[in-house]
Design a protein that fits this description.
Elements lengths: L4 H12 L18 H14 L5 H8 L9
Helix pairs in contact: 1-2, 2-3
Length: about 70
């Protein structure tokens, strides 16, 4: 998945509690997936790597954990 640099910054901000997942756009821009899709991908990858738990994934995104590979 193509990830914008700003998505990584947003993800860190979400984990700190300074931004919410729901505040993100779900509209693809400039050939990139929507910001929500990019954040779901980053969160999924951290859950796979045990950086965050699957419960934290659900708490942050409001969605049940699913492996996002694309």
């Amino acid at each position: 998945m193509k990830i914008q640099a700003v998505a990584k910054s947003y993800w860190r901000s979400i984990k700190r509690g300074n931004r919410t997942f729901d505040s993100l756009s779900d509209v693809p821009v400039y050939g990139f997936p929507s910001m929500k899709e990019q954040i779901l991908y980053l969160a999924s990858q951290e859950a796979i790597s045990n950086i965050i738990t699957k419960d934290e994934f659900t708490a942050i995104t409001g969605r049940e954990y699913v492996l996002v590979t694309e």
